[in-house]
Amino acid sequence: MISNWRRLALVLPLLVLTACLPFALSAGTAVPAEPQPVLVLKGHTRDLANAAFSPDGSKVVTASSDGTARVWNAAIGSVLVTLIGHEEAVRSAAFSPDGTRIVTSSRDGSARIWDAASGTEQAKLAGHAGMLEYAAWSPDGKFVVTASRDKRATVWDAATGKVVAELEGHKSPVMRVAFSPDGSRIVTASTDKTARVWDAMTGAAVATLEGHQRMVLGAAFSPDGTKVATAGSDETAAIWDAKTGARLATLTGHERGVLYIVFSPDGNAILTTSSDRTGRIWDAKTGALLHTLPGHGRPVMSGAFSPDGKRVVTASHDKNARIWDVATGALLATLPTDGSEVQTAVFSPDGKRLVTATFDGVARIWDVSAYQSR
């Protein structure tokens, strides 16, 4: 039989280790535990298309296939207002730059502008002949641009709901739209294999970005407005001169279609996500691959930079979002979403939180302040 002294000798090291563990944690030597959401936003009855923070970080808006959008208190998770009026799935929802209004786009062919505090519908933007895929605000909040499967994009006066300009020329559905940082131009991405740059107020074509061999699924302006980056289902991304339309670089390396593309806040890097189950970070000046972000088990649908540009998040249908260090490409954290595909993930304006939108109709808010670049 083991004596009491021998039992003590066996147990004592474990007691010492347990006692020392809190000090090790406080000294910052331990890796943070697997993150868990601090808030779970439930109420939608179908999948979410996206979720986004308000400019001040106090609210979250969600867009759902149940035909509604909802505004939530980002501190306690309560529903503030439900935006009811669309007749089909809501494809996108976004706060205005000042946070007072929300624009939604829907498969019912309309976009709508709502008061973010009361949920009152302020304007219905109707006139497209097909389903809408996306809507975006101008930087000054005076205009909205919509992307439609009717092969057009339309610019609207956000105060009156009247049409300002029709962007016509694409031969297939328009999937994404974005204003330039100064609001003077718009870029559209289409399944007709092109992206196009337009004058935002007149609708005149400025440049056609031709060269992709298959559908263009995403497009984004650089922060200084001089470049456009495009995501193609031909397994490539590209960087273009926004004024002339000249191709500056082709980003090759993905093994399946590129689904999403975005510039870093300083414009020096680009993040792409792909059906090949990876994200990739590129040098925005040269097009050189900086880091491959592996590990997801299914397509990576979208991604985002943190406001300081030091981290990125990738959202995947493998039911996880992942946070990465931009400088090294190292994985900082995996955010498990309780068994549901992640469609989008974005940081809060202060970079301390993150919201994920998933196919179970739930948005989750995470505290990611512990997961910083190394």
Describe, in plain words, how this protein is organized in 3D.
The chain contains one helix and 32 strands. Residues 1-32 have low confidence and may be disordered. Helix content is 6%, strand content 49%. It has one helix at 4-26; strands at 39-41, 48-53, 59-64, 69-73, 79-83, 90-95, 101-106, 111-115, 121-125, 132-137, 143-148, 152-157, 163-168, 174-179, 185-190, 194-199, 205-210, 216-221, 227-232, 236-241, 247-252, 258-263, 269-274, 279-283, 289-293, 300-305, 311-316, 320-325, 331-336, 342-347, 353-358, 363-367. It has one domain: Methylamine Dehydrogenase, Chain H (7 Propeller). It has a four-stranded antiparallel β-sheet with strand order 1-32-31-30, with no helix packed on it. A four-stranded antiparallel β-sheet has the order 2-3-4-5, with no helix packed on it. Strands 6-7-8-9 form a four-stranded antiparallel β-sheet, with no helix packed on it. The protein has 374 residues and is mainly β. A hairpin with a 4-residue loop joins strand 7 and strand 8 (111-115). The N and C termini lie far apart (51 Å).
Primary descriptors:
32 strands; four-stranded antiparallel β-sheet; Methylamine Dehydrogenase, Chain H; disordered N terminus; 374 residues; mainly beta
Short description:
The protein has one helix spanning 4-26, and strands at residues 39-41, 48-53, 59-64, 69-73, 79-83, 90-95, 101-106, 111-115, 121-125, 132-137, 143-148, 152-157, 163-168, 174-179, 185-190, 194-199, 205-210, 216-221, 227-232, 236-241, 247-252, 258-263, 269-274, 279-283, 289-293, 300-305, 311-316, 320-325, 331-336, 342-347, 353-358, 363-367. With 374 residues, it is mainly beta. It has a single domain, classed as YVTN repeat-like/Quinoprotein amine dehydrogenase (Methylamine Dehydrogenase, Chain H, 7 Propeller).
